[in-house]
Each structure stands twice: as C-alpha cells, then as structure tokens.
Amino acid sequence: MQAGTETSYKEMTVDKAKWIYQKMQEIRQFENAVHEIFEKGEIPGFVHLYAGEEAVAVGVCAHLTDDDKITSTHRGHGHCIAKGCDLDGMMAEIFGRATGLCKGKGGSMHIADVSKGMLGANGIVGAGLPLAIGAGLTAKVKKTDNVAVCFFGDGASNHGTFHEAVNMAAIWKLPVIFVCENNGFGEASTFDYAAAADRISDFAKVYKIAGDTVDGRDLMAVYEAAGKAVDRARKGEGPTILECLTYRDYGHFEGDTQTYKDKEVQEKAIAEDDCILRFQNAVKNTKLLTDEEISAIDSQVQDAVAHAIQFSEDSPFPDRSETTTDVYVSY
Amino acid sequence: MSVKMSYSEAINDAVRQAMRKDENVILIGEDVAGGAEVDHLQDQGAWGGVFGVTKGIVEEFGRDRVIDTPIAEAGYMGAAVSAAATGLRPIAELMFNDFIGSCLDEVMNQAAKFHYMFGGKAKVPLTIRTIDGAGFNAAAQHSQSLYAIFTHIPGLKVVVPSNPYDMKGLLLQAIFDDDPVIVFEDKTLYSMKGEVGEGFYTIPFGKAEIKRKGSDLTIVGIGKQVFTAMKAADQLAKKGFEAEVIDPRTLSPLDEGTIIESVKKTGRLIIVDEAYPRCSAATDIAAIVGDKAFDYLDAPIKRVTAPHSPVPFSPALEKIYMPSPEKILAAFQTMVGDRVFTTV
C-alpha cells in the first residue's frame, strides 16, 4: 500500500493545497451540519453521510475538469462537493426545496449537476459502474480526452455490475477510473464477511488493467495514485481500479445505531486517523499552508455552509405542478 | 415514393438512415455487428444480430459505432444509458425482451428516472430495440411480450410497430426522440413484407392508426395482434357486423382519443393482446375506456389475451395459447348475445 510522501507535498502548489483543503472542509462541515439538522427532524427522507472519506473524493476530483464525468453512490454529497456542485443548491435539494439543484425532486440520494460533470448520486448500489463506462464510451466515440470516474463502495464490488463494467472497460480500453471507497462496511455487514477477495484492487490483475490500493485517509496517497490513473486514462491507456481504504465516521444512514461497529476502532479512527487532520499536519509540516491560511479557509467554509442552510430554510417548497413536470422531455 | 421491404429490412434501413444523419448515433448490443475480433468477419459476413436484422451495418459504419458487447446486459445497458446522458444517441439492442431481468435497473431506475430526478437537467435519448412475441416455439423465456412492464413506468416510451412502414417511421422517431424509448420487434413479423417509405421519415408517437372502419365493434390489436383483429373483422363482416380495427402503434404515449371516439361510435370494445392478461396493456386500455366512455358502452369490455400462464413450448399448446380470430368472435358473441349473432 502506498502512502503520500513529503516530497509530494513540496511539489504541490499553494493554490492546489488550498483548493483541496477547502473542499475537504466543505464536505466535513456540510455533512456535520446535515447530521445536526437531520437529528432535529428538519430534513426529510434518507441521508447517508460522507464524513471521514473526504480525502477520496477530493484527492480524485482534484485531477478532473467539468468536462470529465463522475458517477456516485447513495453516499454522494462528498462527490458532489468535490466535483464543484453549488453548496446552496445541494443543501436546498436535501431540504426538498424548489431552489435545489434538482428542483427538490431528487433529494440527498439523487443530487446531480450534469453541467459540472456530476451524473448523479444514485440510490441503487452498483448502478454507477455501468453508467461510468457509458461516459467513458462517449469520450472514446467522440474522441475527446475526457475521463469518467466511478466512485463505488466495497459493498458494490460484490455486485455483478462491478464485474460487467470493469470487464467492458478493460476490453474497450475505456478512460474510466474505478475508485472503490472501501470503508469496511456494506451497510452493517463488514467487508471481511461479505467479500471473498482480500483486496478489490486484486481484480485489476484478473481483468488485466492497472490497480492499486492506497490509504484512503491519506489525501496525498489518493491524489498521487488518482493522478497516475487519470493520466493513463487520458492517454488512452485504459482503466484503473483504485481502492482507497477509508472509514465511515457516521452510520450507514442517519439514525443508524451503529451497533455493528467496534467503538474503540471508531474513536481511534476519528481521533488519530482523520484525513483532514492528517492533511492539516502535512501541509503545516511542509510549510505549504500556514495556520492563518487554514483558519481563514475554516471560517470561510463555515460561512458558506451557514449560508447554504439559511438559503434552504428561506427557499419555498416546489409548486404542486412540479409533481408531474420533467417526466418526459416531450410526451 | 415507397419500396417493398420486410419488417427486418425496415429496421436495418432505419438504423442506417439515423447513423448517416447523426454521427452521435451508435448501435450497441450482443453481436449487433456479429463476430468482433474474428478476422474473416471484419469486413463482411458478420452476423448482424441473432436474426440478422442489423447485418451489414458494421460494414458501413465501422466497429467504433457498431459495438458488439459481452453478454452482460446490465453492463452495456447501463453504459448506453449514460452514453445517452453524455452526448450520444445510442440504439441498444436487448436481444430478447425476456432478458430485461438482467438489466431492469438500468432501464427502470436509471434511464427512466434521470430527467425527473435531476429536475429536468439531464436527458437520456436512448432507444432500446428488443424482440418480443410468441408463435416461434421459443418457449417461456424467449417468447414473452413484456411491453406492459415498461408502459407502467413513467419516463419510458413504448412502441409496438405492427408492420414495416410503421417500424421504420417509429424507430426513426425513437432514435431522435430525447426520451428513452423501447421499440418492440415481434420476431414473427421479421420476414413480413410491406411498402416502406424511401429515405428519412418519422411517425409521431401517440397517434393510433385506424386500420379498418366499422360501426358495430371496436377492436384494438396490439403489435401483430392487429392482424388477428383484421381476420376477425373479415369474418364478422360476413355475418353482417362491421368492426373498426385500431392499431395504437405506441402504448406510451397512448392515443386514448382515437380509441374512445371509436367506442363512442360502436359501443363495444375488444382488446386483443398476446401478453399475459393481468396488469397488461389490454387491461389498462379497458380501464381507461371504462373510466372515460362508460356511458357509451353497450356491453362489457372484452379482452382476448394469453391465459395467465407462461408461453408453452409445444406447437400444439402455443397455438391454443395465442389469441385467434375464433376467440375474438367468441368474445363478440358474448357481447351481442346468442340471438343477435346467430340470426345474422
């Protein structure tokens, strides 16, 4: 397993480090806010929080443009933020308001912004895998150098769509990066129980493509491995499976009692192995960012999240006529 | 100008017309080119699908746009959905509609939902071509007519062409439509010849065709059951009853107006559908007419369908299983009463 090196931090630009830190903070503070508001009963429906896994979404999306596409999961807020979705529009969507990114018709599990290359969070485990190869196919047929990234969980690696999609991406050499967020749990069942394989990246060998497993709580490890994978994909050298070992700080869904988790492991992961704390320490040690710069970003993000909440609370619910609009483009 | 060609050739022609018109149109599915990576098939002789419907298309457009997939329906159907959402106009072939079990999520939860779930900001201009229909002794897993499943799902359009002319025009309409459309190709119609328009033309969705005028009975025939309905109408005419036969051509959208206007005139309705009877297109049309034209009905609406059982293999059983002119006549007899029918 590879880890990020000190040299890598020295090669990173200040602007890139700031962007990465800001996005990780946006995800963390956004998710913490959603957690609190959900507990108060002000958010309808199901919510699955991404906190703890920020280094994966941000480390990968740091290499992408708006023309690159990503597919996501039910735990999609982090992918949306990392891909550049608007915080106000996202929060309003989660609140079910008319000003949401999807006019309040999708909700937490279906936030999308195609203009940003975000093809939607997805309520079906494993569904994003074939969708990602479709975006890769478009890039190949249209002869662009765009790539598609599929974020999926360790749970989805047991799904048939994983194998169908990876096989097809491999035989067609599609510009797709399969990013597995292995957080150790598929809902409540552990990875060790549900998967016969030791490592998801082991399948890369079977399908004869590139594969790697990295410490997914180490931003730089993800960033470097993803950079190589995206580069390969853009050059037409085919797909990669990038497995990122991470941890889900909250439960499967909000309201989950998490009785299946080892409390000691969880406390240790959050206290000692947090991806944001690790990134903070690394950028400070390597003098990439100062304490002041970090604090400035922290408070800027705090304001942005507060604004998103206020914006959502002030926004109207969709008009009843919206129930039956957008079913078809024309009918 | 028109030209005589088969239902199968009409499909082939429509796909070529579309691919010539727009380079974003691709054809993807299991052996749609037929024999990828088989050296002697690169230029000619490739299958073109199990029934040879897309034969020759790879020779004109090449393998970048005519893509043989592994036998992995969820994988390639999902890819087609997303390719559609990201700028292509894929025609995905699902070899038999019975295989939808392997990729229903991609059609039902992805293709059908994107436009709505994403607040109208995404569109999925995907056409799924799939084979349906009994009468081929293909047994229970290759003979079903599953259009009702898709008609049930908002966000999908469902097309059931009954003849070569309609097939070409409706398929071209489907390919250039911005919503996901499923076009059902009845395998027993592939060799059927008919006059087809030359060049590019489309037939709008939601416009039924009145195949035969009549004032005593309305018969709605779905897909190839239009022909069973026509045969029954001929036999009824000999007994002095004129049936109006309607081909809805698309089940979603459904041309309710044409059916209801006809029933208002005839007062009687039989729907002929070879699919299973429960929660079917026939049942749906019966419910719509019962709801919107009840006062005009002189008799209960009758459905002539398959029984509620899988399609049997044995030719002897499959023949019994299918709707027939005799079954339509028997249904009509119950609507008009023995006295009226037998005195003619």
Report on this model:
- The complex is a heterodimer of chains A (331) and B (344).
- Chain A is an alpha/beta fold and 331 residues long.
- Chain A has a single domain, classed as Thiamin diphosphate (ThDP)-binding fold, Pyr/PP domains (Rossmann fold, 3-Layer(aba) Sandwich), CATH 3.40.50.
- In chain A, 45% of the residues lie in helices and 10% in strands.
- In chain A, the strands form two sheets. Chain A has a five-stranded parallel β-sheet with strand order 1-2-3-7-6, with helices on both faces.
- In chain A, a hairpin with a 2-residue loop joins strand 4 (185-186) and strand 5.
- The radius of gyration of chain A is 19 Å and the shape is globular.
- The mean pLDDT of chain A is 96.
- With 344 residues, chain B is an alpha/beta fold.
- Chain B folds into two domains: 2-197, Thiamin diphosphate (ThDP)-binding fold, Pyr/PP domains (Rossmann fold), CATH 3.40.50; 209-343, Rossmann fold (3-Layer(aba) Sandwich).
- Chain B is 36% helix and 19% strand.
- Chain B has helices at residues 7-21, 57-61, 73-85, 104-111, 114-117, 147-151, 164-175, 225-238, 256-266, 281-292, 315-321, 325-336, 338-343; strands spanning 2-6, 25-29, 66-68, 89-96, 127-132, 157-159, 181-186, 193-197, 209-212, 217-221, 243-247, 250-252, 269-273, 302-305.
- In chain B, helix 1 (7-21) packs parallel to helix 7 (164-175), helix 3 runs parallel beside helix 4 (104-111) and helix 8 (225-238) crosses helix 12.
- The radius of gyration of chain B is 20 Å and the shape is globular.
- Chain B starts with a strand and ends with a helix.
- The chains are: A alpha/beta (331), B alpha/beta (344).
- Chains A and B meet through helix 6 and helix 7 of A and helix 3, helix 4 and helix 5 of B.
